[in-house]
Specification:
single chain, 279 residues, alpha+beta, 13 strands
């Protein structure tokens, strides 16, 4: 089981890495003076500087990341991350797995403080948890939340995804190798009804386009990145809006220890019957 959980953890962390790849063009180039206000008076780099500042100062965000990879079918590769998160480590959202036509299922999750609840669908259980335990878990939990400490081995990957501070730190640190090439400012357009200015550049071989609000404060609202068959789009909304605080009830939840006690060699149990078997 450990190998399955380890692979699941690595896959779960990929969306945040992809999100950082979208916005590292905001960092790494010396800032210029800021005229403020009208985007038409600002250079591409000045707009990027303003957007970086707004992103780093955000107390909370809503991130929607979509992976459009056209590579081989992979049920363990993240396809969509839809997540509201804040600097206190709270979050609420979902993660859908499966690229290239593969179906990896979806897991909903909520984190408040050190507690985390996750509710995988049947496809997620079967495709992400190896050794036969996934099918057992799908039948046993039957749509209920798995609840436990966010630092628990099974839950830690999702808990780590909720770290807005870590995301901001990577953005502030800039790219690990060379800084992005000179940024180019495009013509004003609209994203979801909002006036934005596209800022384009290349970063570590990837083509990156940042869509930054034309009006002050200049915020990044969408970013796209493309390199070969890999491409992703990230949408950022709800700057500084509190993360939803509702958590599942005890009746909707099962302690994570129940999963740890499942045996892949056991007969699949009824949904309401606890399984106590040696792992």
């Amino acid at each position: 089981m450990q190998s399955g959980v380890s692979r699941h953890r690595k896959a779960t962390l990929l969306p945040v890495s992809a999100a950082v790849a979208c916005v590292t063009a905001l960092a790494g180039v010396p800032a210029f003076g800021d005229d403020g206000g009208d985007a038409s008076k600002l250079s591409a780099q000045q707009l990027a500087d303003d957007a970086e500042k707004e992103l780093l100062n955000a107390k909370s965000l809503h991130v929607l990341l979509k992976n459009y990879s056209t590579g081989p079918a992979d049920a363990r590769s993240p396809a969509v991350l839809d997540l509201a998160l804040d600097q206190d480590g709270n979050c609420a959202g979902s993660l859908t797995m499966g690229t290239g036509g593969a179906e990896g299922g979806t897991v909903e999750f909520i984190k408040r403080g050190d507690e985390l609840w996750m509710k995988p669908d049947t496809t997620f259980w079967k495709s992400q948890v190896t050794g036969g335990a996934g099918e057992l878990a799908a039948q046993f939990f039957n749509g209920r939340y798995v609840h436990g400490n966010a630092n628990d081995g099974l839950l830690k990957s999702l808990g780590d995804t909720c770290d807005l501070n870590a995301f901001q730190a990577q953005v502030e640190g800039g790219p690990s190798s060379a800084p992005p090439e000179k940024l180019t400012k495009g013509k004003e357009t609209k994203v979801d009804g909002t006036d934005v200015v596209p800022v384009s550049g290349r970063n570590d071989g990837s083509e990156v386009v940042l869509f930054i609000t034309a009006k002050d404060p200049h915020r990044l609202v969408r970013a796209t990145t493309k390199s070969g068959y890999l491409s992703a789009t990230m949408k950022l909304t709800d700057y500084n809006r509190p993360v939803p605080s509702a958590t599942p009830s005890k009746e909707e939840s099962v302690d994570v220890s129940e999963f740890q006690n499942l045996s892949p060699k056991a007969t699949p149990p009824q949904a309401a019957a606890p399984v106590r078997a040696a792992w």
